[in-house]
Amino acid sequence: MPAPLIDYDGEKYYLNYDVPKSIGRVKIFNGVAPVILKAYAWIRSMGAEGLYEAAKVAVLNNNYLYKKLLEISGIDAPYSKDKQRIEQVRYTLEKLTKETGVTSGDIQRRMLDFGLHYWTSHHPYYVPEPATLEPTETPSKEDLDEYIATLAHIVKEAYENPEIVKTAPHNSVIHLVDESGLDDPKEGAITWRSYLKKTVAE
């Protein structure tokens, strides 16, 4: 059995780490059962033909988005620019930032005002001012066109009136979140326990 075990001493329950023949703690790398179950159910419900069709549509959607976004000033794709992509592209808005001072994070927050999702990248960034847009098989062409038009509108705002973008979101419950510590390993904490160790130790 994995450790710790939950034991009862007659008065209260406690975590028992004294289990010499245990396999140890079960970590996240063994998988998260609900996610695996949902993925399995989706695969079974789609079947081989459905998965093939979903993959084709995801690649088609991504390449459509890729071609259209490269037409917008300030957006670029740093790797193998003239080649087709598979299911996602890591874009860079470095040129836009240099010309307007508007960052990819500012664009992300402005997209919230239009009710659309925009993801920059994991931290630390390895592409300057990244945007990781992954349309998958779900959006229709109309959805993609709306997304492209919204992003083009925000880029136009960045060139004409950057303060609107820099101070976004304007229509959201949560306004600006301090992201300064995301790239600092001394501040970041992956788990609640590691966060407590760092904050209590200070």
UniProtKB/TrEMBL annotation:
Q: InterPro entries under this entry?
A: GDC-P_C, GDC_P, PyrdxlP-dep_Trfase, PyrdxlP-dep_Trfase_small
For this record, the Gene Ontology CC terms, alphabetical, are: cytosol; glycine cleavage complex
GO MF terms on file?
Answer: glycine binding; glycine dehydrogenase (decarboxylating) activity; pyridoxal phosphate binding
Top-rank taxon of the source lineage equals Bacteria
Taking every annotated instance into account, which residue ranges of this chain make up the domain Glycine dehydrogenase C-terminal?
54-160
> Any one Gene Ontology biological process term?
glycine decarboxylation via glycine cleavage system
What keywords are assigned to this protein? Pyridoxal phosphate
Please report the name of this protein according to its UniProt entry. Answer: Glycine dehydrogenase C-terminal domain-containing protein
Q: Which organism is it from?
A: Anaerovirgula multivorans
